[in-house]
Specification:
CATH topology of chain A: Ferric Hydroxamate Uptake Protein, Chain A, domain 1
Number of helices of chain A: 7
Strand content of chain B: under 5%
Oligomer: heterodimer
CATH architecture of chain A: Beta Complex
Helix content of chain A: 25-40%
Shape of chain A: elongated
Largest sheet of chain B: 2 strands, antiparallel
Shape of chain B: flat
Radius of gyration of chain B: 24 Å
Largest sheet of chain A: 5 strands, mixed
Mean pLDDT of chain B: 85
Strand order of the largest sheet of chain B: 1-2
Amino acid sequence: MAALLSIRPAHAAIHHAALVIQHASGSVITRCVAFAEDQITGLQLVERSGVQHEEESFGSIGAAMCQLDREPSTVPPGCFGSGPYWQYFHRQGGGWQTSAFGASSSVLRDGDMDGWHYAIGANQAPGNVAFASVCGAPAAPPAAMATNHATPVATSTPAPTASLEAVAPSASPRPDAVLASTGPPTQPPKPTPMGPWLAFGSMAILLLALGAINLRRRAP
Amino acid sequence: MIRHPLAWGAWTTAALAAAFIDRNPYLQALLLLVVINVFLPYRGRRRAGTWKFALALALVPILFSAALSRFGQHVLFTLPAVPIIGGRWTLDAVAFGASTGFALLLTVAVFAVLQTAVHSADFVAILPRPLYRAGTTVALALAFAPKTLAAFQSIREARQLRGQRTGWRSAPALLLPLLLTTLERALQYGESLDARGFGSGRRSRYRPFRWTAPDVLVVVASVTAIVAIALLPVAPYNPYLDLVPAVPNPARLLAVGLLAVPAVSASLSRVDHARHHA
């Protein structure tokens, strides 16, 4: 993803992050959120997506997600209850990874994707969703982006709530269509900078040679 | 050879700063190489028994992190639902523990080098006047524990040579001579302090330290390294987000490399046959 970001032209002052919410029934809703900042938190992503949510603050630990898109129908006592709960994931490479932080302290940058799954038991990742199927191709120039977003105008598109969202209306394809698009998004080959490795290698060799010289000398 | 205690103090500060701040495994490996290189000219001066302690200390975080952390993508194996240790054991958690353990290992190694290269008396000698008495007392107190341990071992060896038992049951027979030896040593300390005029108000200087070119070079290199380590952007290593560590910043690599100056100067200096006793 880093390589994708680095080749993005400077015109990308508006960034995009994707949100995937999978209910216990298996139904999936996706949202694309545009933001002007360099980064937003996972909680801000949910807030700006306009999806109904209820969170509870746990002080310095952060906020916990108790209710998302009316699931569960009432907020359980103590936010989590004893059954299934909203599990929080980040998209990394081609898969979902359990978030090490809560939504209020996790960070999303341009091209990142968060996943929520209402499930019981640890590490129940949502279904596979590609970023491009939620937000369109990440590195697309403005013209291509416009055509991308022009296709499905309002079949299942939620009403844009935030003003920024109006800039880039999000498209939510049908759940089964989303789940069918598996596999990691194609990435251009990462250019590997040789300089640091050369510096590291030469310094290690120099130090080993120095050690050999000092070893040959008589110990004092 | 670097002799000035202040030069060693600067080097230790810089090396500790690097050990605490740099968590990139490549930088840590380079720092370990540097510390070993700095130690090599002083090997054999004192028995270095600290490496076992350092390795044990480095293993503890790995064990704790692997056993208690349930995050990460790269699952090694899954234990049944036993309280606390049950669940997924991940490579990410092991890497996180290893990174912490490596930092601890480096810290102990830096102090081991300092202890081997500089005599505590040299540090006391450069203390400012108001701190001199307190410094001498602290140095004597710190020297007390290893001296007592050495006395204990020699008494044990003496008993073994005579064919006597050395187990736990012989502890009383060991403790009495140990107590006598310690009291004897305390009296000797008192007499030697008295003979040197300790507490008479005036302070004599025996063989004052002179700044040599390598000493100055070490101080300059260490201060540069401290500034670079503190100011250059840090790329923290978080194995939970990305197991493969990021490419180290070349400037930070150079900053760690600067700490090898004592080893370079030792390899260039003539072999010091007249080993000094402080």
